[in-house]
Amino acid sequence: MYLRLRQIALVARALEPVERLLTACLGTAVCYRDPGVGRYGLHNALWALGGTFLEVVAPTREGTAAGRYLDRRHGDGGYMFIVDCDDLEARRSHFQAMGVRIVEDIRRGDEALWSEALHLHPRDTGGCLLSVDRHSGGADRQGGYRWAGPDWQARARADLRIAGATMQCADPGATAARWGELLRQQPEARAPGVFDLRLDDTFARFVALEDDRGEGLSVVHLAGADRAAVFAAARAAGARIDERAGGLAFAAGGVRFDLVP
């Protein structure tokens, strides 16, 4: 059995400037643009990083859920935390038993390449929009992942991956406990007011509010063999540099990217 962070989605007012900056910082080209997000009034760009994925979506019309989220959080920022698993039916039953609202229950594709997703109502989860998925590639991180198209592997950067993400919360302990109940994992206190939920080889972290933007996904943690090179690329691209706590970090798309060992 597996349960792991597979994709982080950001939302931006305008796609092109964020896409240009992230492509330079990450040192890899966009692997896919999903025409399916058009039904939600969006367009997108997706990068493949070591079997994990980073996405940016942006509205193409007025009145979208993404646009309302941008208004609510006063600009670009983290939008979705997407995990994948091998027991989606059991998890669907678990969410229903908890009384959690499933706002999207999706299956796309054919026998060769398919993906399923359960989007949970953010008011029932806290933190950010949580999606629990299952994909035709199964446990193989290099296998089929329909949200990234049929040949994303050829455009992937293998030496860099998403190791985790941080949500800022009004009550980080309660939100961590809620996610722990949802995902049937036990959160642990990392430091006073900081809680981690460990997935297979990734994590969700919950911290107190750090600004006036309210709850949301605020940090993406990147791990790779040459994090100094990524940091140098971000600096050269003109990303805002954040050297807090002596670490390597840059800002893009309304979130901080921390480069971790």
Q: How would you describe this protein?
A:
- The chain has 261 residues and is an alpha+beta fold.
- The chain has 2 domains: 3-139, 2,3-Dihydroxybiphenyl 1,2-Dioxygenase, domain 1 (Roll), CATH 3.10.180.10; 160-260, 2,3-Dihydroxybiphenyl 1,2-Dioxygenase, domain 1.
- 22% of the residues lie in helices and 39% in strands.
- The protein is built from 6 helices and 15 strands.
- An 8-stranded mixed sheet has the order 9-10-11-8-12-15-14-13.
- The protein is globular.
| CATH T-level fold name of the largest domain | 2,3-Dihydroxybiphenyl 1,2-Dioxygenase, domain 1
Number of helical segments with 4 or more residues? 6
CATH architecture of the largest domain: Roll
**What helical percentage do the residues reach?**
10-25%
Strand content: 35-45%
**Rg from C-alpha positions?**
17 Å
Strand order of the largest sheet: 9-10-11-8-12-15-14-13
Mean residue pLDDT: 96
Low-confidence stretches: none
Separation of termini?
A: 26 Å
What kind of sheet is the major sheet? 8 strands, mixed
Supply the CATH superfamily name of the largest domain: 2,3-Dihydroxybiphenyl 1,2-Dioxygenase, domain 1
CATH class of the largest domain: Alpha Beta
Taken together, the total number of domains comes to 2
